[in-house]
Design brief:
Layout lengths: L5 E2 L9 H9 L22 H15 L5 E6 L2 H13 L9 E6 L2 H10 L4 E7 L20 E5 L1 E2 L4 E2 L11 E4 L16 E5 L10 E6 L16 H6 L9 H16 L2 H22 L16 E4 L4 H13 L2 E2 L10 E4 L6 H17 L2
Parallel strand pairs: 1-12, 3-4, 3-5, 5-8, 8-9
Antiparallel strand pairs: 2-10, 6-7, 9-10, 11-13
This protein binds 4'-deoxy-4'-aminopyridoxal-5'-phosphate.
4'-deoxy-4'-aminopyridoxal-5'-phosphate binds next to helix 3.
Protein name: Phosphoserine aminotransferase
Cofactor: pyridoxal 5'-phosphate
Pfam families: Aminotran_5 (PF00266)
C-alpha cells in the first residue's frame, strides 16, 4: 500500500500527518542543534526547552491549575495501577487504607485488582452485569477512603463518564488514557489524572500524570524509588532518562492541537465524527451499537452484527479498502472504531460509506 490508511486502532493509533511531517523534517537536525531529539542528552540545554514546551502546552490546553504537577513517566498507564495506591494509600505502619473503585470495564477492574495488593479495595459499583455497556451511578465514597478511582473512558467497551462524581473531600483519581484532550475536563475536580500517550498524545512509552501537589508525599522506604511521585516531581521527570523522543512528539501534537483551534475545536470535531457514526449505527438494519446511548464514548465506538463469520468478513474487507484495525478487542469480539483526535472526519465518512455498501450486500 503506498497511501496512508485510516487506522481505527485503539492504540497506538493515528497521529496527525502534519506532526509526522514536522518530525521527519526535524529528524536529523532539530531546532538547529545539529542532531535529532533521539540523540540529545536529556540533561542538555537542547532538550530542556523541549520537555518544558510539552508541559507548558499541556498546561495551557488542559487549563491545569498551578497547584498541580505534570509528570512524564514510563511503564504505561498499567504502572499507574500500582503506583497510585503505593503513593496515596500505603502507611508507614503497614495498615491497609480504604480506597473505592468503580468497575466499568477491563482496565478499571485491572486497576482495582492491582490496588488490592496494597490497599483495602471496595468495588462500590460495577456494570459487569450487562457486559459493561453502561456507566453505573457513582456511589458515595466511604468516609475513610484515601482516594476514589474511576476510568473516565473505557477503551474496550466504548463507554464514558459524563458527570464527575462528587466525592467530597475524598481525592478523585481518573484514568483518562483513551480520552485525554478529546474534550474539556475540569482538572480541578480531580486529585490525580493519568494517561498513556499512545492514543491522543503521541507514541507509546510516555505516561502523563497530573497530580495535585498536596498528594505528593514521602512514602515508606520499601517502595522503590522509581515508583515514587515525590522523586519524579522533585526531579522534574528527570530522575532517570525520560522517554525523550515521545515527550518531543507530544509537544508537536499539542502544537498541532492549538493550531487547529484548541480543545474547543477538537471537541467539536470529535462530537461531529462520533455523531455521524452513532446516527448511522442507530438506523442500520445490520449493525448496532451495544452501548447505552447516554454513556457512549466519543473515542471508541464498538458495533456488532451478531454473526461472527460476517463480522470477520467485514473486518477483512474493510482492511482491504484501507480501513484498518476495526476488529473489536479480543475479549469482546465484534468491531470497534477508535476515532481519536487525529482521525479526520474523512476517515469516519469513508467507514460509514463502506458500512453502507456492506449492509446493502448482506441484508
Ligand atoms: N487504561 C486504559 C483506559 C487503556 O485503554 C489502556 C490501554 N489500552 C490502559 C489503561 C493500559 O495502558 P498501557 O498499555 O499504557 O499500560
Amino acid at each position: 500500500m503506498n497511501k496512508r490508511v485510516y487506522n481505527f486502532s485503539a492504540g497506538p493509533s493515528m497521529l496527525p500527518v502534519a506532526v509526522l511531517e514536522r518530525a521527519a523534517a526535524e529528524m536529523t537536525n532539530a531546532n538547529g542543534t545539529g542532531q535529532s531529539v533521539m540523540e540529545m542528552s536529556h540533561r542538555s540545554k537542547d532538550f530542556k526547552p523541549i520537555i518544558d514546551h510539552a508541559e507548558a502546552m499541556l498546561r495551557e490546553l488542559m487549563e491545569i491549575p498551578g497547584n498541580y504537577k505534570v509528570l512524564f513517566l514510563q511503564g504505561g498507564a498499567s504502572l499507574q495501577f500500582p503506583m497510585i495506591p503505593l503513593n496515596l494509600a500505603v502507611r508507614e505502619d503497614g495498615k491497609k487504607q480504604k480506597v473505592t473503585y468503580v468497575d466499568t470495564g477491563v482496565w478499571a477492574s485491572k486497576a482495582a485488582e492491582e490496588a488490592s495488593k496494597y490497599a483495602e479495595v471496595r468495588v462500590a459499583a460495577s456494570s459487569k452485569d450487562k457486559a459493561y455497556s453502561y456507566i453505573p451511578e457513582a456511589p458515595a465514597p466511604d468516609t475513610e477512603d484515601v482516594y476514589y478511582h474511576i476510568t473516565w473512558n473505557n477503551t474496550i467497551v466504548g463507554t464514558k463518564w459524563n458527570k464527575i462524581p462528587n466525592t467530597g473531600s475524598v481525592p478523585l483519581v481518573a484514568d483518562i488514557s483513551s480520552c485525554i484532550l478529546s474534550e474539556p475536563l475540569d482538572v480541578s475536580k480531580f486529585a490525580l489524572l493519568y494517561a498513556g500517550a499512545q492514543k491522543n498524545l503521541g507514541p507509546a512509552g510516555v505516561t502523563v500524570v497530573i497530580i495535585r501537589e498536596d498528594l505528593i508525599k514521602k512514602v515508606p522506604d520499601w517502595i522503590p524509588t522509581m515508583l515514587r511521585y515525590e522523586i519524579h516531581a522533585k526531579e522534574g521527570s528527570m530522575y532517570n532518562t525520560p522517554p525523550c523522543y515521545g515527550i518531543y512528539i507530544i509537544g508537536l501534537v499539542l502544537d498541532w492541537m492549538k493550531e487547529q483551534g484548541g480543545l474547543a475545536e477538537i471537541e467539536r470535531r470529535n462530537r461531529e465524527k462520533a455523531t455521524l457514526l452513532y446516527d448511522y449505527l442507530d438506523q442500520s438494519k445490520l449493525f448496532r451499537s451495544p452501548i447505552r446511548k447516554e454513556d457512549r464514548s466519543l473515542m471508541n465506538i464498538p458495533f456488532v452484527i451478531g454473526n461472527a463469520d460476517l463480522e470477520a468478513q467485514f473486518v477483512k474487507e474493510a482492511a482491504a479498502s484501507g480501513l484498518v484495525n476495526l476488529a473489536g478487542h479480543r475479549l469482546v469480539g465484534g468491531m470497534r472504531a477508535s476515532i481519536y483526535n487525529a482521525m479526520p472526519k474523512e476517515g469516519v465518512l469513508a467507514l460509514i460509506d463502506f458500512m453502507k455498501q456492506f449492509e446493502a450486500a448482506h441484508r
